[in-house]
Amino acid sequence: MLQVFTSFSNKRNHRAAILLGTFALLSSVGAQAQTTTFVSPNIQNFSPSNLGSSVLTFTPTVIAGGTGTTGYFTETGAAGFGAFGVADGNNNQVATAIQLDFDERTFAPGSGSSSPNTLRFDLASLSYTNGNGKTSGFADLSKVEVYISVNGAAYSATPQLKITGPQVSGNDQGPIYNFGGGTTPPPYSYATNNNIVLSPAPSPGISTVVIILPSSATAYTRVGVRIILGSTNKNQLLIDNVTLRSGNASPLPVELTRFNATSQAQAVNLSLGYGLGKEQRPFRSTAQRHRRRFPDHWHREGPGQQQQPARLHVRR
C-alpha cells in the first residue's frame, strides 16, 4: 500500500494530512497539532465588508430590553453600520443592555513574551435629549463591562473591567463624546478587577480601552472575550474596532482548508488548499511504502505574504 504524507507547518505549529489508499485522514503531529492560532490582529469593526480570516466574530444577546434599541449603528449613532451598541429610549434608570460574546482565539507559543497580547476597543457615549429638555451623557447606571476567559474557563461573575457613569445627584451629568473624543488610560490587566467611575461632564470620558491579556510565552493560550453594554436615561453607548492582537509579532499559521487525493495507476494525485497567513514555512509531501519513508519528493516554499489561497497538485 502506498501512503502519502502531506504536511505543513509554521515555526511553532505542525500538522499532517495522511492518505491511506484513497481515504484521506487529517491527523496531528505533536500534542498541539489540533490548535489553530488566529491571524493577528483579529478585528471586528462592525462593517459588512469586514470579512475573512482576520475578523473577530461575535454573538450578540439582549439581556435587558427596556424600550431602547440594540445592534448596529453608524459611528455617529444613526441607523446603519460601523459601530455596535445600545441606545436607551426612556428618561429613567431602567437599563437597556446587550451582551457580546466574541469567539475564542488561540495565541501561539511565544506570543506576549516580549510585548503584551492585548484586547483593545473604542468607545463613544452619545446622547438623546431627555424628557427635561437636557442632553444626558454617560449616566450613573450606564455601564461597560469586560470579561476575559482563559483556556476555556467560565466567565467570572465579576468583570475584569467595569466602567460606569458619575454617581452624582441627577442622572444627566455624565460625559458626552464621540469616538476619539475622550481619553486613553494606561492599559488595564486582565488579572485584576478594575472598577472605573467617570467624572461628571465636562470631563472627558474614556474613548479607547486597552486590556493586557495573558502571555503565551511557553504554551498555547485560548482567550474568550465578553463585553456587556448597558445604557439608561437616553444615553447611547457604542463600541468599535474590537481587536485582539498578538504580542511581539509571533508567527502566524498556515491553515489547511482542503485536501483531496485520487489514486491513478501507480500514482496518487494530491490537491490541497491553504488559507491566509504570514511567515509561512514550506509545504512538503513525502511518500511511504510498508512503513519505509522516502525522501521528500515535493516541496513548495510558502511566501512571506500569502494573499490568496492556493491550489497545489503533486504526482508520485
UniProtKB/TrEMBL annotation:
Superkingdom to which the source organism belongs: Bacteria
Alphabetical UniProt keywords: Signal
Range of residues in the leader sequence: 1-33
Annotated spans, Disordered: 279-316
The protein's name: Uncharacterized protein
Protein's organism: Hymenobacter humi
Lineage of the organism: Bacteria, Pseudomonadati, Bacteroidota, Cytophagia, Cytophagales
